[in-house]
Amino acid sequence: MSDLEVRVVNRLGEDVAKNGREIGEIIVKGHSVPKDKIKNRNLTDGWLQTGDQGTIDKDGTINIIKPNKDLTNNDGGKISTIEIENVLLKHQAIQEIVIMAIPHIKYGEMLHAYVVLHEDYNLTKQEIIAYTKKYFSPANCPKKVTFMDELPKTTSGKILRTQLSSLI
After folding, report:
1. 10-14-85-64 Cα dihedral, nearest 10 degrees
2. What are phi and psi of 112, to 5 degrees?
3. In this structure, what DSSP letter does residue 118 have?
4. Number of domains in the chain
């Protein structure tokens, strides 16, 4: 029997109704969750946020509605770009960051960081990569860094990733 526990929760971290209709984020907990994934992900009481959206019915069957598309497949294996963003946002100089996977002939995909620094801070591409290497293998660190004054956003504040990808 597996020690893995799975829940579907809303934005407040509360379980969604077990009706097969209410959508929430799928979270997991247990000894079988790889320790390297737990180290850098958002956790609440040991629960790992997958980023996948789904429903749960009265029998406990989970249906994935929207898989986490923020996974990249590069030479270092699959990794969540959100996972890398969360780690980099802990750096005192970084105000905002978006990590995007861009096609690469040799590696499949390469990570590109779009960075907005806090006012009065300076940071180089090499410093960002070195900071990332403290937490991830070199293959899972950004290879390209673009510094920006601000990230393109909608009027509601959502980052326009399509505009960033057109800059590549």
Report:
1. -50
2. -120, 125
3. P
4. 2
